[in-house]
Amino acid sequence: MRNLASDIFSLQESLHALEHDLLVFEDIKQLKEWLKIVKRSLAAPRYDDMPF
């Protein structure tokens, strides 16, 4: 029974995390803007490791 209770608790935590993550998709416009920012930052050249 203890294992079952532990599994149920773990699944409930996972469900709450998924519900929280899905809230991001409520505002699609905001999500698209964020994705554009991430895409630009990944495409930008990085010169952090070059000594200038």
Characterise this structure:
By secondary structure, the protein is mainly α. It has one domain (2-43). Helix content is 71%, strand content 0%. The chain has two helices and no strands. The chain has helices at 2-22, 28-43. The longest helix is centred in the first third of the chain and has 21 residues, at 2-22. It is elongated. The N and C termini lie far apart (63 Å).
Count the beta strands: 0
Distance from N terminus to C terminus (CA atoms, Å) equals 63 Å
Helix content: over 70%
**Count of the domains:** 1
Please trace the helix and strand order, writing H or E for each element: HH
Number of helices: 2
SSE layout and pairing:
Blueprint (H helix, E strand, L loop, with lengths): L1 H21 L5 H16 L9
Summary, kept brief:
The protein contains two helices and no strands.
Main attributes of the structure:
single chain, mainly alpha, 52 residues, 2 helices
